[in-house]
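User:
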Amino acid sequence: MKKILFALMLCLANSSVIMAQNQLTVTVDTAGTLARLLPNEVRSSISELKVNGELNGQDIKVLQSITSRARPRGENEEVLTELDLTDVVILEAKGSFRTRANQLPAAMFANCQSLEVVLLPSTLESVSKSCFSGCTNLREVVMPDSLLVIDDYAFNGCVSLTSVELPAELQKIENHAFDGCRSLTEIEIPEEVELIDNYAFVRCVNLEKVVIKGAVSRIPVSAFADCERLKVIDIPASVDIIGNEAFKGCRSLEEVTMPEVLAEIGNNAFENCVSLKQVAAHSVGKVGNAAFAGCLSMQRVTMGGVGRLGTAVFLNCSGLASVAIDGALSAIPKQTFSGCTSLASVKLPPVIRNIDELAFFECKSLQQIELPTALREIDEHAFENCTNLKTLHVPSLVKRIGEGAFSGCLSLDSVHVEGFIEQVEDNLFRYCRSLRAVALPVSVRSIGDNAFEQCSLLQQITLPISIDEIGDNAFEKCVSLTTIIVPAACRSIGSAAFRDCSGIMRIELPAALKKIGSNAFAQCVSLRDVVCYSPIPPTMTRSTFKGVPVAACTVYIPKGAKNTYRKDKTWNRLPKIVEQF
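Assistant: Predicted structure:
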C-alpha cells in the first residue's frame, strides 16, 4: 500500500499526470515514455485511463499490459474498464514492437475481458485485425471520422457490444469484423462503404435493423447469416450479387426489397428464413442451390430474367402457393419445389427443356400444371406424390419420362402422352388410384416394373403395338381392368404383371410371346378366356395362373396346337384348351 501511495505521489508531482479517484489522465510529451509516467503500482490502481500525445511501439506495449489484466490481484487493485485514446497519435515505429502510423496493431486488445468502453484515436485510419476480438465485456466503442477500414475479426466475439456508430468516411468492413456481436441491435452502413466482406455480421443474433447506404456491389458470403431478429432488409440498387448464405437462418426476416437487376442470388442465401413471406425479383440471372430452402412462410415468388436455377431452390417451402418464373431457363433442377405442399399455381417459361429429379416432389396442392412446349425430359420422381394433380398432358417433344415421375399422384384422372417416349419407366404411375384413362404414343416399346401398379380405377388401356416387354408387377392390382390385349410384338410378360387384377375376364396373348413370368396372372379370379395366338406355348411357371378358377377358364389356341399345349406341364394344368382359329 505504501508503494502505491508513493508511486501516486510521484505521478502527481509530474504535470503530465492528472488523477481523480480511479481516473487517470496521462499526457505523453515524448514518445516512448508512457512506462515512466505509469509505473506498475499505478497501472493496477486505475479503472479509467485517458492518454494524450504521440505513442510509439513501446507505449502501445504498456497499454496492452494494462488492458490485459482480467481481474484485480489484490484487495486495493482495479482493472481498466474505460480507455480514452481520442487525443493519441500513433507513430510509425520499428524495433521489437512495430507500429504503423495511425493504426492500432493487430490483436491490440484481443481477449481483454475487463474493457467496457473505448474511445479510439481521432486520427486512426484502421481498426486492425482482431483488435478487440474476444473482448466479451466491451459495450461501447467510439470511432473517429478518420476511420477508413475495420479489419478482419476486429470486434469478433464482442458479445456485450450494444451499438456502433460507423464513421461517415468508412470504406471497408472486412471478414468477420462483427462476428458474434450478440448484443448489437442495429447498424447503419455509411454511404462511402464500398466493401462489406464475408461473415461481417454473422451470428449477430439480436440485430434487428440494418440500413445499407453504401453503394456496395455485393452482399458477401454469410454477411448477415444467423441474425435471428433481423426483420426487414432493403438491398441497395448497386448490389448485383447476394452471396452464399448471406441471410441464412435469419428466422425473423419478413421482408426483402431486391434490386431491379441481380446477377446472382447465391447458394443458401435465404435458407431457413422461416418468416419470409414473398420474393419479387424483376431480373435475376442465377439463383443458387437451396437459396430459399426452408422458407416456411413464403407464399409467393415472382422472378424474371432467370437464366439458371440451382438445385432445391425452394425445397420445403411448405407455405408457397404461387410461383411465376420467366426467362431463358433451360431446366427446373433437382428438388426445386420438393416439399412445397401448398403450391397450387405454377407458371414456367415455355423454353424449359428438362424437369429434373424430384423437382415437384410432394407438391400436394398442385391440381394442374401446363408443361412447357419445349420440354424434352421429365426425370425420376419429378411429380411423385402430387396427390391432387388431376390431369396431365405431356407435350410432343418429350422423349423420356423417368422412373416414378408421377407415382403416388392419387387424384390423377387422365394422362395423354404426346411425346415419342420409348419406355414407360418403372413405377411411373404407381399408386395413381384415380387414373381412368391413359393415352400412350406408338413409340413405346416397353412397360417398366410396377408402372401402373394399383391404378385401381383403370378400366382399359390400349397398349401400343410396338411394345415388346411388360415388366414385373406392371399392372398389379389394377382391379378395374376387364380385358387385356397384349400387343403383337410383345415377347415377354414379367412376374406378377397382372397379379390381383380381379376384374380381368379376357386376355389375348400374341404369337410372338415367348415368356410369361411367375404369378403373372395370379389371383385374377374373374378370368374366363385366355386367347393365345402362338402355336408354341410360351414358357411359364406353375404359379403363373395361381388362384385362377381354372375349371371355369377356357384357353383358345391355334388349330393343330392342342397336342403341343397338352404336352407342356404348365399349360396342361389348365383343363379347358380349345383349338379355335
